[in-house]
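Usage

Read records sequentially. Each one opens with the input sequence:
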Amino acid sequence: MAVKIRLQRRGHKRYAFYPIVIADSRAPRDGRFIERIGSYNPNTNPATISLDFDRALYWLETGAQPTDTVRTILSREGVLLMKHLRGGVKKGAFGEEEVQRRFDAWKAQHDKTVEAGKAKDAAKKADDAKARLESEVEKNKAKAEAVAKKKAELLAAQEAAAKAELEAENAEAAEETPAAE
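and closes with the structure output:
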């Protein structure tokens, strides 16, 4: 029986998440499986992966073949590295303590890289928000200047009309005053 480590599709249209399962290669994609060892949710940023490390390692060492996507996930989580290192122990290249030391060093470096990527994404998002805010402030300032200019023109026009009306009244009063005397 050929055993595969593969993804099952769950969720709804345009919002899929994937349980990571051990299944017979002849079984349908979303059909029967032997064991569920984790899940993969690409809808979050960054993608959420939960994996039973020990069970995944067990099935790899037993001979289960991962699909390409699952191979990438297992590699990112360090399962393939641990399998490789444990193969070195079986060959007598180094001891179990060395395996754990190398794996811990890799895991620390990997976690640092992931955190740096998250920090970079957060900084980029903050810079984009700051740039959008500055752009909006500039637009608002330009709009406020245009409104102030229009109000000033309207006020000047009203003052000119009031001045003309006052002059017209003064002229009428001046014409009426000599006739009354």
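Summary fields computed downstream for this record:
- Residues 96-180 form the longest helix (85 residues).
- Residues 24 and 74 are 19 Å apart (CA to CA).
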